[in-house]
Design brief:
Chain B: Belongs to the complex I subunit 4L family. Chain B: One of its GO terms (molecular function) is quinone binding. The complex is a heterodimer. Among the domains of chain A are: 78 residues, Up-down Bundle (Four Helix Bundle (Hemerythrin (Met), subunit A)), CATH 1.20.120; 36 residues; 81 residues, no CATH class. Chain A is built from 12 helices and no strands. By secondary structure, chain B is mainly alpha-helical. Chain B has one domain: Helix Hairpins, CATH 1.10.287.3510. Chain B contains 3 helices and no strands. The radius of gyration of chain B is 16 Å and the shape is elongated. The chains are: A mainly alpha, B mainly alpha.
């Protein structure tokens, strides 16, 4: 009885989480959903007299694999959302049809088989000290060669990951002198204007005003502005709202081409000095000379 | 109960397959592959109990080991592709297309 209840609760949870994994827009949600599925499967293993596998499932999958997924997700950029455009026409429809068909076929085939009552693990572990010693005996006697090969596989995987993830520095690291030179050769040697901090507004999201009363475009923080436009918190002043919108539209239009004197995003910029990860759409100041390398050539192929 | 477990396993496997077909983000595709592997493991464990011997659990254990190795390599490849192509979408890795 207890097993039935456990099964039904966990079956509902795990199928719902699996659906969430497939259909949630944000990759981090998908990762968390996968964690839920793995945990409920671990409990199902435990219920089915496989305590060792349950522990390994939690330690290896929810512990190591999930952390690796989240780590890479953060490295690659959490906001790399899926594009909504279908590359192959009708792909989505046919994928769902195929999935439903496959699932139904499997479920019906399995459902039609009349199983005798489960033999249970009692016989397999009888005469031994329980599940873990019995498994150990199997692994280290009958399957010892497979086990040894597994160790070779793990070493190869670790080496391979190191080789793949390693990156040679092709250019020398930019010194402070180089950075200063780039900056003074660039269009804006001075620091960018700060945001307009007025009593009426929420400080950093407001553009600064020039002496003639117009808006200083470079003082707009693109990230905040984009966020506010998407969330609908545009500035109350229609002129400024229109200007911010216009700047954002120009940003969207320009794609990868650099715009001089945008507000730098400190973290991204620092990473990029290391020759590290960088988002295409994000504005950077003082990187004009370095920006010509990667992103454009794939567009103009 | 065996049937229930097997049907659940089949459902999870099918959902994972749909995810592989539908999603474009390489990492999410990878997660769906993991989901399919997990579903297989559930079937293995269920059959082990059905037949009352340990081979199913043993195979499930080896599947976990191989899956862990596969995740490490796969994610390293994804990170490498992201570095050169600036994208984790499977649509953008099309250099072999022409």
């Amino acid at each position: 009885m207890g097993e039935t209840i456990t099964f039904w609760v966990l079956a509902v949870v795990s199928v719902a989480a699996a659906l969430g994994l497939v259909f949630s827009r944000k990759a981090v949600y998908s990762a968390l959903m996968l964690g839920v599925v793995m945990l409920s499967l671990a409990v199902l293993y435990a219920v089915q007299d496989a305590p060792f596998l349950a522990a390994v499932q939690i330690i290896v999958y929810t512990g190591a694999v999930m952390m690796l997924f989240l780590f890479v997700l953060m490295l690659v950029g959490v906001d790399s959302a899926d594009s909504l455009v279908e590359t192959i026409r009708g792909q989505r429809f046919w994928a769902i049809v195929a999935g439903l068909g496959f699932g139904l076929l499997l479920a019906l085939a399995v459902g039609n088989v009349a199983f005798s009552p489960a033999a249970g693990m009692g016989r397999a572990v009888s005469g031994r000290d329980g599940n873990v010693p019995a498994l150990a005996e199997e692994i280290f006697t009958r399957h010892v060669f497979a086990f040894e090969v597994t160790s070779a596989l793990l070493i190869t995987a670790a080496l391979g990951a190191m080789v793949l993830a390693h990156r040679e520095r092709v250019r020398p690291k930019a010194t402070q002198r180089d950075l200063a030179r780039t900056r003074f050769a660039g269009p804006q040697p001075s620091p960018l204007p700060g945001p307009g901090t007025y009593a009426l507004h929420n400080a950093i999201d407001m553009p600064a005003l020039l002496p003639d009363g117009t808006v200083a475009v470079t003082s707009i923080n693109r990230v905040l502005a984009r966020h506010e436009m998407e969330e609908g918190y545009a500035p109350t002043d229609p002129e400024k709202a229109a200007l911010i919108k216009q700047v954002l539209e120009k940003d969207a239009a320009r794609d990868a081409a650099p715009v001089e004197g945008d507000k730098p995003i400190q973290v991204k910029d620092a990473l990029q000095d290391e020759g590290e990860l960088r988002d295409e759409g994000e504005p950077q100041a003082g990187t004009t000379s370095r920006k010509e390398n990667a992103p454009q050539e794939e567009d103009g192929k | 109960m065996t049937t229930h477990y097997l049907v659940l396993s089949a459902l999870l496997f099918a959902i994972g397959g749909v995810g592989v077909l539908l999603r474009r983000n390489a990492i999410v595709v990878f997660m769906c592959v993991e989901l399919m592997l997990n579903a297989c493991n559930l079937a293995f464990v269920t059959f082990a109990r059905q037949h009352g011997n340990l081979d199913g659990q043993l195979i499930a254990f080896f599947v976990m080991v191989v899956a862990a190795a596969e995740v490490v390599i796969g994610l390293a490849i994804i990170v490498m592709i992201f570095r050169t192509r600036r994208s984790a979408s499977v649509d953008n890795a099309n250099l072999l297309k022409y």
